[in-house]
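Reopening this one. Same input as before:
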Amino acid sequence: MIRQPSQDGAGHGDGQVPQSSGVDVAECQRRIGYVFRDPGLLVAAFTHASGAQHRLASNERLEFLGDAILGFLVCEMLYRTFPDSLEGDLTRIKSVVVSRETCSRISEQLRLIDFLIVGKGLAVNRPVPTSVLSDLFESLVAAIYLDGGMEAVRPLVVRMLGPEIEQVACGAQGSNHKSLLQQLAQKDFGVTPTYEVIEESGPDHSKSFHVSAQRLMLPVPLVAAILMGHAAAEPTPAARIMPWDVEALSKVPAVHATTERAVNGMKSFFFEGAEYKGKPTRVFAYYATPAGQPPDGGWPAVVCAHGGGGTAFPAWVAQWNKNGYAAISIDLEGHLPGGTHFGVPAGFPADQGHENAGPKRISWFGDIALPDQEQWFYHAVADVIRANSLLRSYPEINPDKIGLTGISWGGTIVSTVAGVDPRFAFVIPVYHGGYIHKHDMTPEQYGAYMRKWDPAAHLPHAKMPMLWVSGFNDPYPVDLLTRSAETAGGTSTICIRPFLIHGHGFGWEEVWEIGGFANSIVMGGPPMPRCERPRVDPQDGLVHAKVSGELKSAVVGFTTAAEWKNPALATIPCTITNGEVVASRPLPAGVTAFMINASGAGAWGDASVNSPVVWLNR
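Same output, byte for byte:
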């Protein structure tokens, strides 16, 4: 909702909130993940010039400052993330990341428009211009900086623009069509094409070549699968490479007590991780159990794996404790907890390492050329498995009721762990799964990655129940998440929220289905409704899908886009009868992909229940 201006004109950075500002300060702070000491700054950031009593009361000055702060923080991130990149390359990435289009998109992801204060003219003329949304994000950056300093604003910028930097950096290969073809051939067929020049034209200084790619010799079953419109399994379980010594990781790791980053009511300690460059590593963790005595057999428990820019979060542990679970939250990048979010003790910098740290994540796969045991992915998976081994040694824990969840990059890590460590009772990836498609690896490196690290190689071995969670607005394409769900060897349930901000906190506080699903597996709770892969029935031409559990409503969501970029889906209403969802009319011409989007009922009232995405003619 776009707000009309307040009439009192107070509260712009003076510690006061205008009584009639109309801005829901609490909800806005929840979305951005920051609580203002001076909420007047927040209101000022959302006051467009058309809604201000005078120009100095608008967000124009904040936008001016925010533009500079944003540029500095992005430059700092690029400098640290890409130590081998030239200045020109960094400048090109920065120009996209801090562009009006990117800042506008971030405002849309956070739905900042809900709090925008504008005059009547702008409120009537929808949609709001891109420039206004872009200025809104920059003004917010400045307001947080003025309120809490650089350490307060840095986490927001890292959280929102970190994925943008990675996608832009990996997308730099997009104009190299030969490289892209080689990647696809290596990925899908395991071969590298050869080339024959058919024709060349033009002057010597600017030649144009017509080239034929040859020798994509495919096995007959794969050709048949392609002709039938079905994607071949990628890769098959037999093709995977197992770099971890699971037997060794299943042993109880040594624990080292520490007073670092202590939090009341929780244990903080290091446990021993995998060796890195010949030396054992230590992994920082927070651990706590619910209050009171454990139930017969011990507490159910959860291992929590953070995403990019994250660390061990006390608030994540507390959330699971509140739901009746013991929990351990671990740092996967060799850091001590820092920053200002999710219960981390105040006054410590983010990303601070320690002397026994393992490797940090470098961009997407900046360490792919290193030996396996020196790569971040190897250590992250190993650390999660060791956390499981540690929990299983505690007498207050029920070893048969230990689950695993991860957010963003943590979602990718736990998806791989699901196929490597069969001891987990359930696994819940949030936002990310497998089939990583954005990268800057060579074809050979990518082929090895898909067999060694990517969840696609390991998920066929995952037999435990899994819940896959995301939002239709998420940068990670929903079709890749549901493809990961279908690759898993056990039962997968899919939960795609209509809107879910990508970030820590949102990925555990906003999705009540996560706790409900865990309860259904280890606490005797009601099973979550589930929708199987839909199909077009050749008899009636309608989309059908088998479902389990009680549903209130369902639609077929479809798109006509060539690629799934989490589009706004058009829908067809469905009927629900005898465990089957049936569309009320056929799919229209031009549809490229579709899925079932349903809403639960009964104990699962309003739960988001979704089917896998089905691509036609693929």
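So the earlier flakiness isn't reproducible anymore. For the record, The CA atoms of residues 160 and 289 lie 32 Å apart.
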